[in-house]
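Hi support team,

I submitted a single chain yesterday and got back a structure, but I'm not sure I'm reading the token output correctly. Could someone confirm the output below corresponds to the sequence I sent? I've pasted both exactly as they appear in my results page.

Thanks,
R.
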Amino acid sequence: MIAARTIRGRAKGESGFTLVELMIVMAIIGILVSIAVPIYVRVVKSAKEAALKEDLHVMRSAIDSYTVDKEKAPQSLDDLVQSGYLKSLPVDPMTSRNDTWITGESDAMRDINETQGGIDDVHSGSQGMGNDGTTYNTW
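Hi R., thanks for writing in. Yes, this is the structure output for that exact sequence:
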């Protein structure tokens, strides 16, 4: 029987996988991928939305703190960074840029001690639609 083996160590008559076996394996892999990709995309979108909500909360808190401490609203988001209220301007998770933030400015004073109006709100620059059906620039 040893003489019946070929150089590669296979016995005579043995062969590799058949085309049908390979096609079945590829079909199973395709089905698994078609199930996993939509779930992955949804989870990534939810993670970006959570990061956006947190970034907006932090920036709005920094705007409020700056306004109370300095008795005037910041004139730009860079004022928050330069004054140490933010370490750096966060990257908008939806646009992947830190220069697309939309600021809401008001001349109205929110505090009796406030001497100058300025930025009082911030929103994402993305026009994309969130999982809740609203656009990111309205959050």
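A quick pointer for reading it: The longest strand covers residues 118-123. Let us know if anything else looks off.

Best,
Support desk
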